[in-house]
Amino acid sequence: MKILAVCLGNICRSPLAEGILKSKLPESFIIDSAGTIALHEGEHPDKRAISTAAKYGLDISKQRSRPILPKDFVEFDVIYCMDLSVFETVISMAKTEAQKSKISLFLKEAEIPVNNFEVFDPYWSEMDGFEEVYQLLSDASEKIKTKLLTSNS
């Protein structure tokens, strides 16, 4: 199964989600991340995201920001969006109903109804914002792991 995590710039939330999902799911799962804007294309994740992930033994420092591409809608089985704005942008890029059916809010898929199923963007916050996002993504990833492994067995 191929999973794509998407946020705005692909430097905070989706790199954390990618790292967490990779740590929780078997290696047979292919996980990547992208952003809806190319502003940070080629850049490493935000230093605060790297630091927060490292605190939990995850190295996301080698990831590079990239925009979501038309081919992603074909190559990935599921596309998890971090907030409603990202979700709406990604849905608008999908060409077919089949592609649209792959797209969901990350927290909605995990059945975590906080903040209207949105993972807030910690970019403008301090380290505690990144910690909060990490915990939320980790909890959601655990639920998604259970869901995916149950449905794929």
UniProtKB/TrEMBL annotation:
Its EC number is 3.1.3.48. It comes from Kaistella haifensis DSM 19056. It is an enzyme of class 3 (hydrolase). Residues 1-147 form the Phosphotyrosine protein phosphatase I domain. This is protein-tyrosine-phosphatase. It comes from the Bacteria. Keywords: Hydrolase, Protein phosphatase. Pfam families: LMWPc (PF01451). SMART domains: LMWPc (SM00226). The active site is at C7, R13, D121. One of its GO terms (molecular function) is protein tyrosine phosphatase activity. Belongs to the low molecular weight phosphotyrosine protein phosphatase family.
